[in-house]
């Protein structure tokens, strides 16, 4: 069987879906292929023991109220011709960054965070105000900039190591592919998306977003195929000449947009990723989803997201052991301003984890290790939120191995390669990247990545 | 399409791209982007929608012709003469 398309997109995650919507809208024949049976990629969903769970989606970042102009969320809605109301976003209640003896609360109103920093770190209040100005004035959308260490930039402005760690902790967890540090531009993107803008969630979670995007893609005339992986990209004269699918079918497309990751995409072309700037990322997480017999608010917990660190210094790196329980993210999807509360209480906990250790494990040790790491993480978590352990009625835990299995990303890397390809180009003239390895991260980031790569490379006549 | 219809066609396109903008009291002689909040991506989408809906190509060097409604109508009318005003979506 032989078929012809203008663009073939690899991967029906957030970035692939968004790119597909744009291309199909403007009349291209688009084929979007996804290897997994369910779409969504790093932010997919599943059903287990009668309950619906989300893979990712603690929070949609970049939330701004309806009618706000010129912000990433508004831009992407316009580009996709989706109305604000269709996203069905409910804003967060309040969140915090919690370290031993310190807590900085923040909400979708930046002034709370600013006041909290001034209260906890009065000697840094003026310097923090300077940092805020620096961030506000930085143009993070300039795709031509060079990588700069955020630690170096921040170190010139702030001096209190705890405050610095308390800023890095949420920003690393929600979007850094680098250990110990972040790229300054990425720091600015994440700071704006979390603190200047904020968090929200559709009541139905990621299912709602994925359904909205995939329906729009199909309505625009795009073709989506699941359980349809790309086996290889057949290269001839510096171009992808044709695409061979897992089932052996061959598809022809003028251009290919891949969200599979750079190293993964190079391998599809039969090229080993040997360059320093071609290496896959290492940062991965494990996540537990605890279902409770009551709502978190019944236990006195009102925070939407709690970024915690129980040791003196915040470490963001691939841990030595299976996981590092001493820092992470606690999310209660219940704590959003819904019209009607969710049916059950949920507490999600994310901690850093090491892919190769998990990957080497055999059953049943794997399951036992998941539970041991879960218990260890909760021992730390309850230092910062009410002890919900007696109320847990069900739990599911996934690891970097799970992430690799369902998304194909090397090392189960959540934020892709440390070295980004901001312009989305590859060594082949008609092969482009979008998603994590292009460089815009998170749900909103991935959608913007798909849109901007479609605009930059695929919509030129 | 008559000139008023071309004007309507452009307004309909802007409304598609920016449904949250108020277009009722737009001044035809003033730059559109000073009255309606459109960034460069949105502006490019006007060009793309013209191609999609009416098959009109606006080359990059002619983008300034779309800066005001008045200029847009003058520029587009001869190019859209034999087209029908598309239904609003
Ligand atoms: C546990 C967890 C929690 C998260 N929480 C949040 C959050 O609260 N807020 C937030 O904004 N972000 C969150 N994220 C991050 C967010 O999910 C990702 O940044 C975003 O979804 C990335 O989308 P993408 O399109 O770049 O990549 P992906 O979603 O990875 O898409 C790539 C797709 O390509 C497919 N694929 C790969 N190879 C092939 C092949 N050869 N053939 C066919 N298909 C292929 C994969 O199966 C996958 O579906 C979270 C991620 C995780 C893992």
Automatic annotation (TrEMBL), chain A:
Whether NADP counts among this entry's keywords is no
Entry GO MF terms: oxidoreductase activity
Membrane-spanning parts: none
**InterPro entries noted in UniProt:** Amino_oxidase, FAD/NAD-bd_sf
Sequence ranges assigned to domain Amine oxidase in this UniProt record: 14-455
Q: Which Pfam families match?
A: Amino_oxidase
Q: Which UniProt keywords apply?
A: Oxidoreductase
Family the entry assigns: Belongs to the carotenoid/retinoid oxidoreductase family.
| UniProt protein name | Amine oxidase domain-containing protein
Origin organism is Kolteria novifilia
From TrEMBL, chain B:
| Segment forming the signal sequence | none
Could you tell me which residue ranges the Carrier domain spans?
Answer: 1-80
| Transmembrane domains' residue ranges | none
Q: What is this protein called?
A: Acyl carrier protein
The source organism is Kolteria novifilia
Give the Pfam families listed for this entry: PP-binding
């Amino acid at each position: 069987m032989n078929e012809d398309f203008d663009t073939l997109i690899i991967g029906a995650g957030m970035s692939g879906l968004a790119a597909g919507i744009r291309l199909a809208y403007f009349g291209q024949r688009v084929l979007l292929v996804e290897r997994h049976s369910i779409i969504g990629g790093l932010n997919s969903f599943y059903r287990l023991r009668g309950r619906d769970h989300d893979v990712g989606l603690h929070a949609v970042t970049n939330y701004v109220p309806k009618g706000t102009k010129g912000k990433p969320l508004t831009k992407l809605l316009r580009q996709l011709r989706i109305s604000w109301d269709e996203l069905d976003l409910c804003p967060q209640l309040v969140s915090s960054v919690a370290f031993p003896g310190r807590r900085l609360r923040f909400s979708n109103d930046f002034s709370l965070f600013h006041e909290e920093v001034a209260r906890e770190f009065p000697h840094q209040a003026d310097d923090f105000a300077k940092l805020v100005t620096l961030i506000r004035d930085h143009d993070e959308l300039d795709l031509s900039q060079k990588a700069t260490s955020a630690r170096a930039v921040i170190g010139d402005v702030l001096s209190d190591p705890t405050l610095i760690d308390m800023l890095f902790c949420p920003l690393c967890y929600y979007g850094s592919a680098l250990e110990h540090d972040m790229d300054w531009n990425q720091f600015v993107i994440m700071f704006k998306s979390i603190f200047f803008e904020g968090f929200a969630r559709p009541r139905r979670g990621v299912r709602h977003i994925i359904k909205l995007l995939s329906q729009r893609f199909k309505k625009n005339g795009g073709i989506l195929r699941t359980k349809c992986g790309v086996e290889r990209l057949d290269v001839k004269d510096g171009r992808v000449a044709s695409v061979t699918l897992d089932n052996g079918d061959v598809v022809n497309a003028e251009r290919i947009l891949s969200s599979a990751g750079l190293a993964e995409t190079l391998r599809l072309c039969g090229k080993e990723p040997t360059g320093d700037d071609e290496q896959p990322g290492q940062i991965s997480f494990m996540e537990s989803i605890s279902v409770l017999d009551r709502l978190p608010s019944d236990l006195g917990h009102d925070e939407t997201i709690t970024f915690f660190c129980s040791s003196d210094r915040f470490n963001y790196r691939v841990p030595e052991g299976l996981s590092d329980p001493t820092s992470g993210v606690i999310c209660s999807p219940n704590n959003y301003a819904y019209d009607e509360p969710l049916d059950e209480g949920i507490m999600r906990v994310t901690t850093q984890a090491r892919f190769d250790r998990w990957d080497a494990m055999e059953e049943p040790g794997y399951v036992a290790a998941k539970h041991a790491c879960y218990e260890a993480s909760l021992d730390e978590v309850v230092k910062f939120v009410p002890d919900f352990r007696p109320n847990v009625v069900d739990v599911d835990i996934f690891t970097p191995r799970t992430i690799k299995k369902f998304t194909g990303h090397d090392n189960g890397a959540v934020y892709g390669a440390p070295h980004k390809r901001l312009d989305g180009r590859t060594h082949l003239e008609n092969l482009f990247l979008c998603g994590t390895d292009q460089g815009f991260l998170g749900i909103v980031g991935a959608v913007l990545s798909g849109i901007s790569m479609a605009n930059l490379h695929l919509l030129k006549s | 399409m008559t000139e008023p219809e071309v004007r309507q066609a452009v307004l309909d396109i802007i409304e598609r791209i920016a449904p949250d903008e108020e277009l009722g009291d737009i001044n035809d002689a003033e730059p559109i982007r000073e009255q309606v909040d459109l960034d460069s991506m949105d502006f490019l989408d006007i060009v793309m929608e013209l191609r999609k809906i009416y098959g009109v190509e606006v080359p990059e060097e002619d983008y300034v012709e779309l800066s005001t409604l008045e200029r847009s109508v003058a520029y587009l009318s001869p190019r859209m003469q034999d087209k029908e005003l598309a239904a609003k979506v």
